[in-house]
Amino acid sequence: MNNKAITFIKNFSYTLSSNLISLIISSVLILIVPKLIGVEDYGYWQLYLFYSSYVGFLHFGWNDGIYLRYGGKEYKELNKDLFFSQFWMLFIFQMIIGAIIIGVSTFFSSDSNRLFIFNITAVCMLIVNLRLMLLFILEGTNRIKEYAKITLMERVIYCCLILFFLLIGIREFKILIYADIIGKFITLLYAAYCCREIVFNKVSSFYFNVKETVKNVSVGIKLMFANIASMFIIGVVRFGIERTWDVATFGKVSLVMSVSSLMMVFINAVGIIMFPVLRRTSEDKLPTLYATMKTFLMVPLLAVLIVFYPLAIILPAWLPQYKEGLMYMALLFPMCIYEGKMALLINTYLKTLRKEKMMLMINLASVVLSIILTILFTIVLKNLSLAIVSIVVLLAFRSALAEVYLSKLLNVSVFKDIFLELAMTLIFILAGWFVTSWIGVAIYLAAYGLYLFIQRRDINATFRSIKQLVRK
Fold it and tell me: Over 151-220, what HEC string results?
């Protein structure tokens, strides 16, 4: 086995073990937290998680630019004085943004709970964006072991604190939010230790390098806006649900989305290590590697949908107060297919090929469609089922559009695969929604068997390619 393969396997084992433990922790939180706290408190907790998921964009592409410009380099090659200055310039900038958020929310918000969420989100922004710069440096320079430790440490601290608070009888959503902030802050300190040559340099080394900042922002802002647009695709629908219905309904739908997104931790385990690997791969090998990765990803992802059927029995029995929301799981579960394909495969390739502008255009087109469907389903028709199913429709639309564009760059054929994935998704949704018995399992298994038969040549080719990559 060659050294590249050994390094890849080691990095994958770090991220996989980290994300596997994160999956267990997320599963525990999804099962226990809504069981012990009230539906409204759970809704406010989900609202904080929803708002805080957008704070990573308030560095305006600064961190993304560093990730794109320096990804693929060795850590020892980095100019430590330059990155020291960039880190503390970002700190000053985030402090100013945080003060503005707190001031505006205090002036305009009349709801004390929402005011608390806005203010604590500003604190979250400062911690997250400083840590994000360090995480991007670790990921981009292939220091995956430290990256995995930081992400795992946050989840462990977060989970332990929440379980401790719940065990001693605390049921308030604010305490759960404090647990999240504490976990993020402690891991920021550890990330700073891992990059101590950058964070704790001499004061005399600091200088305001506006030119470097402008370069990072100008490069990264396209990727940042592409990521913002990507989150808005689902975020617009969730916002429409929260505004048309109530916080309790928003919490129930968020729970279903959390369950449906659990498999993303495995996909992220591979996605984290693929960017620096692809940046170091010659362009002529990218098309073959794309075909291999696509089959390697989609075959198990479509198989994972089977997990829905036991969950559809277990979760409503465990969380009867969320039974009304959990019935929508059949509609949302396939989102992991399209989210996974975008995160691991398509976005990683577009970033490697430096096509951030096209990423932005594709995501913006999807956001426009999201706004249209949200207005139609939440305001005009006020139909929650259609609003929820539109999430999968939007993700499928974005995935197909992006893959068609990427296929032209790589000169590979994708139309058969797109059609098969859409057909499998449709069969799953129809079987899960309309067939309540185990007959639905049989229907989907039969469809999956047919899918494997049709794709048998691609699957065999993928196994041969993986063997060759390991041996070289």
Answer: HHHHHHHHHHHHHHHHHCCCCCHHHHHHHHHHHHHHHHHHHHHHCHHHHCCCHHHCCCCHHHHHHHHHHH
297 close to 345: Cβ distance less than 8 angstroms = yes
Which pLDDT score, from 0 to 100, does residue 412 have? 86
AA identity, residue 161: L
Q: What is the CA radius of gyration of the chain?
A: 22
Rounded-to-integer distance, Cα 98 and Cα 418, Å: 43
Phi, psi of 438 (to 5 degrees): -70, -5
Q: Which two tokens stand for residue 176?
A: 């759960």
pLDDT tens figures, 384-420? 889 888 988 999 999 999 999 999 888 888 898 999 9
From residue 187, how far is each of 18, 151, 152, 269, 335 by CA, in Å?
14, 8, 9, 18, 30
Spatial CA neighbour of 153 closest among 17, 271, 275, 52: 17
Give the span between the Cα atoms of 336 and 261, in whole angstroms. Answer: 6
Distance CA 247, CA 380 (A): 20
The answer to whether the beta carbons of residues 83 and 154 sit under 8 Å apart is no
CA atoms of 97 and 339, how far apart (whole Å): 30
pLDDT at residue 122, as a whole number: 92
- Measured over the CA atoms of residue 364, residue 369, residue 372 and residue 378, the dihedral's sign is negative
DSSP state of 73: S
Q: How far is CA 323 from CA 15, 391, 441, in A?
A: 34, 20, 21
| Cα angle: 311, vertex 312, 317; to 5 degrees | 90
Token readout for 268 is 């992220």
> Under DSSP, is residue 5 helix (H, G, I), strand (E, B) or coil?
helix
How many helices, marked H, and strands, marked E, lie in the chain?
22, 0
pTM of the predicted model as reported, rounded to 2 decimal places: 0.73
Closest CA to 408 of 346, 459, 348, 461: 346
